[in-house]
């Protein structure tokens, strides 16, 4: 791998991050509200999820939020699983309210029945003959009350069963949501949202160590996978995930942030160590064959291009990720295997962005 290690100081002018700029442009063009969950939805669309991108485009200009949320829920995006869980919780609350109303009505009916029985008992105590003569009409009324109580009990039992089913579904959904919020479903690695959350401690005031973010693109993987049935690259991705896991220390962090993108977050390292690790990982990938459906991709078929950013050159988790993304784009455009984020990368990105806006 080839790299240049010039870094941009924190007070250097920052170019408009390309990924954030694209998301902002789409939001403005389509009239999409700048909500965090919409950011995640557009990140997914712009980061290679063609299905999500097509469905958003089909909504046209100024789509309503419910339609956007429906797309995200259909594709089980992490940021919207919480929304789904909230909807399930709302349904559970509605059922509880219905059960409470039924129980209250049932209580009133039981109280009325007890009062009727007490009145009948009092009349029979005062005048047994008259009480017995009136009992036939009282019995009809009591029978009606008892039937109402039995019916209410059955309704309450059925609603309790519905509530139990909904609560079981909610509990299961929350468990799935927690997993989906933080993990890629194919590889089991952390996802983009989990990575950003894991980056936050490095930007707190008391943070004393420098971290490196290594963003890798697996060359040829996306193009090759798209010419085959959905899920064809699953075995390949799992093998890649294993290589990335084996390439870092226990306290380092591995994530998959796109169809062909993997990240390593390395704690307490300098630029030289980060570059050496990136090269070592790339070497391991290049020297290994990979399973693909019922065959094998030969060694060297898949290669890595890397972009590296350092936490001392960024001011936030999103900026750190975007700087790695810029470095990766620079490496790809210039035909080199690795690039560290630098003032040169920022300047090139800024020129590219301005040229695109002027076009």
UniProtKB/TrEMBL annotation:
It is an enzyme of class 2 (transferase). One of its GO terms (cellular component) is plasma membrane. This is diguanylate cyclase. Its EC number is 2.7.7.65. One of its GO terms (biological process) is cell adhesion involved in single-species biofilm formation. One of its GO terms (molecular function) is diguanylate cyclase activity. SUPFAM superfamilies: Nucleotide cyclase. It comes from Shinella zoogloeoides. Residues 209-344 form the GGDEF domain. It holds the Pfam family GGDEF. CDD domains: GGDEF (cd01949). It catalyses: 2 GTP = 3',3'-c-di-GMP + 2 diphosphate. It comes from the Bacteria.
């Amino acid at each position: 791998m080839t790299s240049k290690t010039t870094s941009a100081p924190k007070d250097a002018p920052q170019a408009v991050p390309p990924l954030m700029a694209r998301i902002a442009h789409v939001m403005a063009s389509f009239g999409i509200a700048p909500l965090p969950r919409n950011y995640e939805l557009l990140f997914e669309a712009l980061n290679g999820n063609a299905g999500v991108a097509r469905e958003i485009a089909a909504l046209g200009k100024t789509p309503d939020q419910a339609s956007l949320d429906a797309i995200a829920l259909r594709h089980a995006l992490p940021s919207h699983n919480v929304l789904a869980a909230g909807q399930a919780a709302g349904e559970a609350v509605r059922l509880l309210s219905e059960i409470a109303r039924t129980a209250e009505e049932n209580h009133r009916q039981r109280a009325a029945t007890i009062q009727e029985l007490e009145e009948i008992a009092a009349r029979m105590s005062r005048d047994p003959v008259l009480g017995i003569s009136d009992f036939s009409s009282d019995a009809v009324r009591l029978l009606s009350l008892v039937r109402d109580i039995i019916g209410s009990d059955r309704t309450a039992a059925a609603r309790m069963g519905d509530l139990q089913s909904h609560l079981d579904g909610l509990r299961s959904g929350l468990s799935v949501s927690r997993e989906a919020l933080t993990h890629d479903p194919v590889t089991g690695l952390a996802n983009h949202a989990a990575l950003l959350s894991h980056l936050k401690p490095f930007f707190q005031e008391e943070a004393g160590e420098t971290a490196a973010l290594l963003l890798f693109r697996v060359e040829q993987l996306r193009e090759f996978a798209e010419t085959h049935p959905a899920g064809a690259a699953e075995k390949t991705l799992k093998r890649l995930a294993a290589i990335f896991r084996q390439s870092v220390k226990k306290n380092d962090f591995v994530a998959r942030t796109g169809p062909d993108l993997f990240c390593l977050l390395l704690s307490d390292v300098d630029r030289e160590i980060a570059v050496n690790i990136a090269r070592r990982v790339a070497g391991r990938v290049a020297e290994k064959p990979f399973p693909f459906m019922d065959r094998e991709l030969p060694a060297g078929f898949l290669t890595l291009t890397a972009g590296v950013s350092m936490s001392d050159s960024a001011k936030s988790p999103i900026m750190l990720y975007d700087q790695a993304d810029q470095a990766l784009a620079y490496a790809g455009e210039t035909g080199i295997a690795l690039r560290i984020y630098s003032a040169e990368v920022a300047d090139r990105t800024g020129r590219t962005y301005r040229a695109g806006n002027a076009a």
